[in-house]
Each structure stands twice: as structure tokens, then as C-alpha cells.
Amino acid sequence: MEVRIELLPSKKLVGCRVMTSLNNDKTYQAWRSFMPMRKLVQRQVNSVLVSLSVYDADYFSDINIDSAFEKWALVEVSEYENIPEGMETFDLPGGLYAVFDYKGSSTDTAIYYHILNEWLPASRFQLDDRPHFEILGENYRNDDSDSEEEIWIPIKQRLLYSILA
Fold it and tell me: Which of 23, 43, 45, 130 is the most buried (most CB within 10 A)?
């Protein structure tokens, strides 16, 4: 699988969030709240949707399927203006990301296993403590094997590689 490394500038996002876990996935609740009001969000930068996860700093050191994290359904905006009731703003910090172009069902978690347990350990990078997100563009189809999305994983140089580089 091809990966590209990108330096992402900070972004302004608007949407809805829920607390969820792998064992009790409530992602659909964020999207169910967000989608009917999506067109009310002013100053949208583009038409893509952003599915974003915020994890505690130690979440990936010992993954527990019952550990809670924030899940967001969002769009990017140029400015925060007249935020619809029931929605919130989210400032996505910029930084280095590994970007994977994924084709397949959004419910197939094998891609995340590959990224976190195969690609990342073999790379010169480690996870960074910033949000993870997916860009859901025009070819995204929820739970469809032909769906396409971009998976953005926050990374930073491993200290050993930085010293030797």
C-alpha cells in the first residue's frame, strides 16, 4: 500500500461529537446529528467530510476495546461564523501525517491493524499525540467495498532516526 508523508497546516473544523469506544461504537450518532444540519455550516472550504478521532495520550500503548475516545463528524471552514446550534468548533493542529489512500469498506478494520502493527513499526516514524482522521470525499460510500477515503495518521520522527539523520 502506498503511503505519502504530508505536513498538514492547522485547520478549522465544525461538527458534532460523541464519546465512543471500539466495543460500543456510537460513531453513527455523531453523523446522524451532523448530516441534517451540514448545509447550515457557513464558510465551508470544500464538500468533503472529515471523520476525526481524539484519543488519550496513552490509548495506543495498551488498546482496550472499552476505552473511550471522542469521535467527530466535521467539515472544514475558513472562519468560525454563526455555528449552528448543537454543533461545535474543533481546531485541528497542524503537523506531520502519514496518509493512506484506502479503498474498501469503512467497517473493515484490517487497514488500521496494518498501519499500526506493520507499517508504523517498520517506518522511521512513531505515533504523535494528535487527532487521527479520515477524509471522506466524493467516492466515499459508507460500508461499501468500493468506497474510497484517505486515512491520516499523526506521526513524528523516531528519536533514534532524528539523531542518526
Answer: 130
Q: Which domain holds residue 48?
A: 3-164
pLDDT above 60 (res 164):
no
**Which band of pLDDT confidence, cut at 50, 70 and 90, is reported for residue 159?**
confident
CATH number of the domain enclosing 74: 3.20.80.10
Please state the pTM of the whole predicted model. 0.90
Q: What is the pLDDT of residues 59-96, one digit of tens each?
A: 998 888 999 999 999 999 999 999 999 999 999 999 99
- Tell me the three cell numbers of residue 57: 495520550
3-state SS, one letter per residue, for the chain:
CCEEEEEECCEEEEEEEEEECCCCCCHHHHHHHHHHHHHHCCCECCCCEEEEEECCCCHHHCCCCCCCEEEEEEEEECCCCCCCCCCEEEEECCEEEEEEEEECCCCCCHHHHHHHHHHHHHCCEEECCCCEEEEECCCCCCCCCCCEEEEEEEEEECHHHHHHC
Write the CB contacts of 160 (distance below 8 Å, at least 6 apart in sequence).
none
Structure-block grid coordinates of residue 3: 503511503
Distance CA 32, CA 113 (A): 27
Look up cell 488500521; give the residue.
112
